[in-house]
Design brief:
This protein has 208 residues and is mainly alpha-helical. The protein is built from 9 helices and 5 strands. The protein starts with 16 loop residues before the first helix and ends with a strand.
């Protein structure tokens, strides 16, 4: 047998359900910035969209009647359609109606300071660290925290609810099926599916 070892690849976990609840609860939704941040974060939680796609999301990308979002992903250049959940839709509508500055910029989410412009991914990621601190969630060197933690949690929830891996890959807009493998590693049930079955021979006292 050749002496080979599998390449090492660290798998980062997504936010736990209680962490997500604490982060969302830490947002002051009575403020203009709070309405925007809540809309961005709840959208990430319920769709698994990447931060680049959320910050580039345009008013024209939402079909309010069908409750769908149609975008072309920034990372893969692949068009996808995701469902717009009621809570996410209400949060975006509340932000547009009551907090978003009136302007001709097509992007939904804008910076809170002038000059008016679309919020960028770096600023959007900073909001998560801000609310983690308020919620008392400590960052660790072993974990990556950001919008991708919401995406990883979204994928893990789908797997644990019985969603097949190939469908998960489609919902997340992967162009390569292997991109779904880290979600299997993050899911306890997914790991169980990967285990090799064995037959135990009691007479021999060993597995076959």
């Amino acid at each position: 047998m050749p002496k080979m070892s599998a390449s090492y690849k660290k798998v980062y976990q997504g936010f736990a359900d209680d962490e997500i609840r604490k982060i969302l609860a830490a947002i002051d939704r009575n403020t203009l910035v709070g309405k925007r941040n809540y809309a961005m974060l709840i959208l990430a939680v319920q769709t698994g969209l990447r931060v680049g796609d959320i910050t580039k999301l345009k008013l024209s990308d939402i079909d309010w009647h069908k409750r769908e979002i149609h975008i072309t992903q920034s990372k893969t250049d692949v068009p996808i359609c995701v469902s717009l959940e009621v809570e996410s839709g209400n949060a975006i509508y509340d932000y547009i109606l009551n907090a978003r500055q009136k302007c001709d910029i097509p992007n939904i989410f804008l910076c809170g300071e002038y000059p008016l412009r679309a919020i960028n991914p770096i600023s959007a990621r900073a909001t998560i660290l801000k609310y983690m601190a308020i919620a008392g969630i400590e960052a660790t060197p072993q974990q990556r925290y950001g919008f991708h933690s919401f995406r990883r949690a979204f994928g893990t929830r789908l797997l644990e609810s019985g969603t097949p891996v190939h469908l998960l890959s489609q919902l997340l807009g992967h162009i390569n099926f292997d991109s779904a493998r880290p979600y299997l590693s993050a899911s306890e049930e997914g790991l169980k599916e990967c285990c090799l079955s064995h037959i135990f021979d009691e007479s021999e006292g060993e597995a076959i």
